[in-house]
Amino acid sequence: MSSDITGKTRILGIIGCPVSHSLSPLMQNAALQALGLDYVYVPFLVTDAGVAAAVNGLRHLGVEGFNVTIPHKTAIIPLLDRLDPTAAFIGAVNTVKREGTALIGYNTDGIGFIRSLQEDLGFASKGTTVLVLGAGGAGRGAVAALCEAGVSAIIVANRSRDKGEALLADFRGIFADVKFTLASLELADLEVHLRSTDLLVNTTSVGMNGTHFAGIELSALKPGAMVYDMVYAPIETPLLAAARDEGIRCANGIGMLVAQGEAAFAIWTGQKPPSGVMEKRLLLALA
Ligand code: ATR
Predict the structure, then answer these.
(1) Among all residues, which ones are annotated catalytic?
(2) If you measure from the C-alpha of residue 133 to the centroid of ligand 1, how many angstroms do you get, rounded to a whole number?
(3) Torsion region of 77: left, alpha or beta (phi above 0 gives left; psi -120 to 50 gives alpha)
(4) Do domains 10-107+255-286 and 110-252 have the same CATH topology?
(5) Which protein residues touch ligand 1 with a CB less than 6 Å away?
(6) Average pLDDT in the 18-45 region?
């Protein structure tokens, strides 16, 4: 972010509802400032009813690009001109870039997730079995990224069966080499799957606001298995606290938030943000 906003300053932003909790403005502006780029990144509160008008407005206002958060990651797709292939098969967009008057949709959540698994847990996905909790937009992004990274098997455990079934039906057709299984969140159903799991990933909002999973018994996990929670506020969710108690290697979603943000920044500006700048700003805000 430049200290002076002039007639030449270029605009980036985020659309969501709510958006006031988002940490993206802080971390993106920190990186823009560190590189001395004449851009500013701002939050836009956009409701479901206003999303089509807002996206068209952003196009004609000449905004260079923007992030998309809850609840618009899927709804935005028909409003865009083109999709990057990864965003197309995930079925969700978290980053948009304007090229002329065309808006192109990308998904950097998956890249961010795999990078965080490698950097924060040292987890190598190839040939592993992963238990994914949740089948929403974040769950779909995780499953797609894990399949692309070469996992052998994915177990999806979701509260509502129909959403889990829909996810599996979509991905079975794309990744024929991966073994997909559907489970519930009940311990009786999960226990057998926990024994073969190399990595357990929470993609749901459970863990925010003191909520926790009742049916997950981490002591049943395969020895050496790891736990990743995409939630980052609180920094330690009940799931992560339980993993720590069991001596299980685990990480929260901060690394993924940073990595997806760095990938979006590179799409918009063509430059890599200086290493550690976004993470440092984020940790300061969460401290
Ligand atoms: P996102 O795009 O962030 O993934 P979403 O598409 O609304 O958001 O999906 C939210 C996911 O969290 C879903 O898998 C949801 O389960 P349902 O399909 O049954 O709705 C899951 N989820 C949300 N609250 C939950 C809770 N209290 N217990 C278990 N699962 C929950």
Answers:
(1) 73
(2) 9
(3) alpha
(4) yes
(5) 70, 73, 134-139, 158-160, 163, 185, 203-206, 211
(6) 96
**Alpha carbon distances (Å) from 47 to 72, 78, 269:** 9, 16, 27
Q: How far apart are CA 267 and CA 105, in angstroms?
A: 11
CATH number attached to the domain at 110-252: 3.40.50.720
CATH 3.40.50.300 fits 10-107+255-286, yes or no: no
Index of the ligand 1 atom closest to the CA of residue 211: 27
**pLDDT at 251 exceeding the cut of 70:** yes
- Domain coordinates in residue numbering, the chain: 10-107+255-286, 110-252
Q: pTM of the full predicted structure?
A: 0.93
- Identify whether the C-beta of residue 22 lies closer than 8 Å to the C-beta of residue 16: yes
- Is residue 89 scored above 90 in pLDDT? no
Say if residue 2's pLDDT is above 80.
no
Minimum-distance ligand 1 atom for the alpha carbon of 160: 19
DSSP 8-state class, residue 54: H
Please answer whether residues 158 and 135 qualify as being in contact, where contact means their C-beta atoms are separated by less than 8 angstroms: yes
